[in-house]
Amino acid sequence: MPNEIVLDGESIVVGSFKQEKIDGLHKIYVVFPVTSEEYHRISTLLYQGTFAVFVPELNLSFRGTIQQYFTSITDLYKQGNVGEFTLSLIELKG
């Protein structure tokens, strides 16, 4: 299982990774921890919505967009808190 994805050059260490193909398009599902210190950087990145996606361990790259995204807690602005982000990305056509 890959332990890292890269979105627009930003590395994210993942705790869970799953991939599949839907109608010939790549789709990945990842779960990763986000600390209060990382929250602003990760949230700002994810607000972009569409990314150059790279999974180094699989040499997999595609242009993808967020299909689903949620977090286990919403008060990550409080120092010391850690949330679990769940993210699914799907490859854009053509």
Describe the structure.
The chain starts with a strand and ends with a strand. The protein is mainly beta and 94 residues long. The chain has a seven-stranded antiparallel beta sheet. 9% of the residues lie in helices and 57% in strands. It contains one helix and seven strands, in the order ββββαβββ. A hairpin with a 2-residue loop joins strand 1 (4-7) and strand 2. The model has no long low-confidence stretch (mean pLDDT 93).
Helix content: under 10%
Biggest sheet statistics: 7 strands, antiparallel
The Rg value, from CA coordinates, equals 13 Å
Strand content: over 45%
**What is the general shape?**
elongated
Strand order of the largest sheet: 2-1-5-6-7-4-3
Number of helices: 1
Span from first to last CA?
A: 27 Å
Contiguous low-pLDDT stretches (5 residues minimum) are none
Secondary-structure element order, N to C: EEEEHEEE
DSSP summary, beta strand count: 7
Strand-pairing-aware structural class = mainly beta
Output mean pLDDT: 93
